[in-house]
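Researcher: Structure for this, please.
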Amino acid sequence: MDGTPPSVEHDNYSDAYIRKILHEVKTIAMVGASTNWNRPSFFAMKYLQHKGYRVIPVNPVAHGQAILGEPVFKSLADIQDKVDMVDMFRKSEECVVYAEEAVRIGAKVLWLQLGVWNDEAARIAE
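Model: Predicted structure, token format:
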């Protein structure tokens, strides 16, 4: 977000830094959002919406459908609205491409889920 994160360890951010991010973010693009209510991304999207965030689903396979009332986009580049955070529900090896797209669209935060790790994507996002 504003300035360099307080840690270069990409899995060890302070609670205060994470709270700051979550307070400043309003719109989240969720890459890998699923139409299947059994998938973790579906639950995460529903939870984030319940907490007041606007969540824009990105999934090339589900493009043209809607998830929880939001139209699904094929790519980050297709989203016309300002995106504050890109929330990744994809494999680690796919993160670099989306990190580059996140930078191009001006997203302030790239959020990778637990178990998803890609140092190159983190460097691009910083």
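Researcher: Any notable elements?
Model: The helical segments are 15-24, 40-50, 95-105, 119-125. Strands lie at 27-31, 54-58, 66-67, 70-71, 85-88, 109-112.
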